[in-house]
Protein 1
Amino acid sequence: MIRNIWMLCEEEPAADELPYWETINRYWERLEPEKLQDVIHCLCRRLLRSRTFEDMRIRGKYWQVIIDGTQFCSSQKELDGKSLYRTHNRGTEREYRENYYYVLEAKLVLHPKILISIQTEFVDNEDGKEMEKQDCERKACWRLMERLKKAFPKLPVCLCADSLYVCEGFFERCGGKNWRYILRYKEGSILTIRAEYRELKKWEKNYQEQIRETRKNEVENRK
């Protein structure tokens, strides 16, 4: 492994140990981000084909993929044209602008304690304006879904996400890809969906609902 890493760095081994971080960084600067994503895809394919984690499939068929976002690298200094930003203490003497990056991750669930990244998508500020995180995150999700489908066209996927994705665009994209989904629905997200769900559950027998202390409903679409 040590020899392979030195070979990737295209440098002569300075010792019989792993390269120093500066050497590794020089390699990262030359590597295209898409190539790193390809490596992750190859690792995921090998794990899936090993059939070691077959018992984790939902209904014995669908692989659970969790989508969620996280913020990192926050700074009051300028980052770049694609970073998001928010204004704090607006209209006061203490007003300041916080610039930050936000990334959307799709995690493949192989075990209750084993979640691995299968697809990554940065949430970009396309217009350079102060954007709503909700709108930006959804757009990033649509890009992530397309890339995930392209990388794993035959993978039976069940997407799991929070109430942010309870919208027509998400449902249409899942249907077009023949994916299933499990969403955490928060009361008040889309009133028409809540009314329709309450009416349909009187007639449908194939559903599950859990009421927790937070009074949030978890609804799973099924066939």
Protein 2
Amino acid sequence: MTKRIAVGISGASGAIYGIRLLEELKKQGIETHLIVSEWGEYTIVEETGRSLAEVEALACVHYDPKDLAAGISSGSFPLDGMAVVPCSMKTLAGIANGFTDDLIIRAADVCLKERRRLLLVIRETPFSKIHLENMLKATEAGAIIMPPVPAFYTKPNSVDEIVFQTVSRILNQLDIQAEGQKRWKME
């Protein structure tokens, strides 16, 4: 049975992580459900030069971020997990506090209540006390906080290799293996 993964792209910097995740999931034939926030669209265009339509074409299904009646807004809609990549501090705050004013936050809320895997690839630095408290709340509710911290033991030669290493780790958290992932080796 094919896995079914939701991907949320919020307006934080780092849209390339969400795009590369969609590319890897598509390559593996995994069913994807995409939600891009209004500011996520802006960041995609600004940072990558890609259009929203190009990114939506990577997903099996895409939703309007204002459509709180979409299938993935219900616990009866079967998902294997969700990754919010990147996850803005606004989106984190909504998830941590149950303020479901858009579909990304509602779908994440459903993952938490249904005890499904939820990864929040947060993008902000430095962290304020409020950010840290929201990360703790989200973690205590069952989310996995996963900032895109590069691992230099892989000896990356490009930004794309750094991005792929983070995407590989996201996939691992969703119980999916990334083809070509470099792992830590003691020699």
Protein 3
Amino acid sequence: MVWYLYNREVGNLTIDINKAKQIGKDFLKSRGYPNMKESYYLETHGVATINYAYTEDGITYYTDLIKVKVALDNGEVVGFEGNGYLMNHAERNLGQPKLTEAEARQKVLRGENIKSSGLALIPTDYGTEILCYEFVGKLSGKDFLVYINANTGVEEQVLMIINSEEGTLTM
């Protein structure tokens, strides 16, 4: 399956976002998508759209993304979009990063505000992918993500995390 959407009226909300995330994860696992980790979500009109990325050996593969929509009235899965996963998921031989996490962390401006970090495979605008260290931090009261190339030390991407009543997204 690549995509489906069931538009229906959503009744009184009885499911919170944490329960919806678990419903989505269980749905994916039951359909042969193991090792999926939720990342960001958006809640609109009583439906949570949750992004899940494949994880393996401590690496988060943002290139292998699946979106699941969960109705917050009864937990029914009402949408699925698996194009990112289906087009990109394959055996990869990424090799060991040339930089250590500590070396990459030194490349992050204001690195003292880092809350968490790990390896991630991110997509590029050119249809390729790059192994990076993902650093989650806070600067001037705002949450951010910085991606440092794990082999060259180049800052590949900086994203701001937007937390709102509707969900958590990146920009």
Protein 4
Amino acid sequence: MLVWGGVLAAQAATTAEHPASRLEGVAFTHQDWDLACDNTRTCRAAGYQVDAEELPVSLLLTRAAGPGTPVQARVALGSYGDEAEAVSAPARGAGRLKLRVNGKGLGAMTWLDAQDSFSFNRAQMQAVLHALPRPNARIEFSHGHNVWRLSDRGAAAVLLKMDEFQGRIGTPGALARPGNRSEDLAFPPVLMPVVKAARVPEQPKGRTAEQVLGLSPKAQAALREALLKDVEDAEALSPESEEGQLSFEPLGGGKWLVGTLCWSGAYNRGSCVWVMNERPPHRPELVTDSASEFGNGMISASHKGRGLGDCWSHDEWTWDGHAFVHTSQSSTGQCKLVTPGGAWDLPTLVTRVVQP
């Protein structure tokens, strides 16, 4: 069951009661910049170096919705692999990394030890935000003879899209296209949805699907064939093989979760997962064809963008007693060799899951 809770502001509370508050997030990429705005209207823009020949670096800009909200920023230096780590490690610390914008030195950046990244002071932040949407912006971070250059390609388009999503275009607080419209016209934040997770029964120990559901091995093979018939690009794994078998877990209320491996590639694989009635007619409903793990009322899907593992996508679904609700969706940004596992968390869907 989806309910709306937690008060951010009086305006947000009013918005949350309206159907339009169930906002769809947005993801947008242009050249060397990404944008991810989630369903609370918080936006995150991430920029990177131009290509792999440059020292890897990324800037993350985060801004919540609402009039007058500030922009928060973090900078991460490349640490993927021994060579990149050897270059960036000496620069990571207080007073070490210097900022230069369009040739003007702006001093040392603030080191955030807990986040393993850097932030800007007020003057530095203003200079970066002023330069980014304009042509030929040169934003450089340096330590000794090493220089990390942030690309401006795509920044103007991404920041304009952020302004548009948050209703800031033409207001003094807009990043890409400011103007004289009232700052109060910026859209308010939307409340984060709250999903109440349902308690699921324990998996019957030592009992087969035939004993629990009355499904013989032959019936299970027939069910698997029927389930996969409508799944596009599902691989024809032998139902006798371990990977080709169905797995069953109780959800309660006469519902079961059933899953099987659907596809595999060089560095990713995905299982198809359905919810079905315990007794015929089973009426299976597909939740996803790309699950990485499932069980205990949760389904997750995590996949590499490429074999190097420097960029990922993540999704989660939560059982609420009636259906699996999509409760999380995010990526880690572009495959730019910034950090193992990806540089940032860029969500387009966020919820607060309340455990039973």
